[in-house]
Amino acid sequence: MAAGNVWFELLDGDGATVGSYFVNEVNVIDVKPSARGAGLVDLTVTLWCENALAGAAQV
After folding, report:
1. Full-prediction pTM beyond 0.85?
2. Quick check: 59 pLDDT over 60?
3. Pairwise CA distance, residues 43 & 31, whole Å
4. Cβ pair 30, 43 in contact under 8 A
5. Which region holds residue 35: left if phi is over 0, alpha if psi is between -120 and 50, else beta?
6. Sheet holding 41-48: strands in order across?
7. pLDDT tens per residue, range 37-58
């Protein structure tokens, strides 16, 4: 499923934002219920980010 362009926020284990990026070409390739709580889902996506830091490909 193509989601388009979005703001993507990276959260730490407590849910605090530790980074924020505008990303392009977001495609959802898997969705499953999250272990973090009812009503939440974990997404597996592919995307393109011009400002990604070195080593960020697997995040």
Report:
1. no
2. no
3. 5
4. yes
5. alpha
6. 2-11, 17-33, 41-48
7. 898 898 888 887 776 667 666 6
Q: What is the dihedral of CA 43, 49, 54, 59, to 10 degrees?
A: 0
Could you give the angle at the alpha carbon of 11 between the alpha carbons of 48 and 21, nearest 5°?
30
Contact 28, 45 (CB under 8 A): yes
Pair of tokens at residue 46:
């592919």
Closest residue by Cα to residue 49 from 19, 20, 24:
24
Please state, in angstroms and rounded to a whole number, the distance separating the CA atoms of residues 42 and 45: 10
Judge whether 37 and 45 are in contact, CB under 8 Å: no
Helices (H), 1-59: none
